[in-house]
Amino acid sequence: MRQWENLKNSYTSEKVPAMERQYYLGALAPGVNRPTWTVLKCVMLALGLCLATMLYAALYSSSLVMAFHVFVLVLLSGGLFILLSWFLSQTGIVSAEEQMKDMN
């Protein structure tokens, strides 16, 4: 609770927080702001690249069970990204200023 109060106090003096503070604000405040959504898309892209590399390695190995397992992981991560995108299209992206108002 004390960290939440410190965060609220640090944003009362600024109208628009710095970019790195917007990531932290997007994680704690209600809604998702654009910088947080951008970071999430980058993380999902990195996950997809790692899983694609693992799938490539598994397909050229002798174990089809491993290839199937990695393929299921690729499907799950793709489904997660699609569902997150759908959810945000329904709820919308909140600006950092609106998140600061919600915290006060």
Fold and architecture overview:
The protein contains five helices and no strands. It is mainly α. It has one domain (2-103). Helix 3 packs antiparallel against helix 4 (64-91). The longest helix is centred in the C-terminal third of the chain and has 28 residues, at 64-91. The radius of gyration is 19 Å and the shape is elongated. The two termini are 14 Å apart. The model has no long low-confidence stretch (mean pLDDT 79). The chain crosses the membrane at residues 42-60, 66-88.
The structure class reads mainly alpha
Counting structural domains, the number is 1
Percentage of helical residues? Answer: over 70%
Question: Average pLDDT across residues?
Answer: 79
In one word, what is the shape? elongated
- Topology pattern, helix = H, strand = E: HHHHH
Major sheet summary line = none
- Low-pLDDT runs of 5+ residues are none
Strand count: 0
N-to-C CA distance: 14 Å
Indicate the proportion of strand residues: under 5%
Note the total helix count: 5
Rg result? 19 Å
Keywords: Membrane, Transmembrane, Transmembrane helix
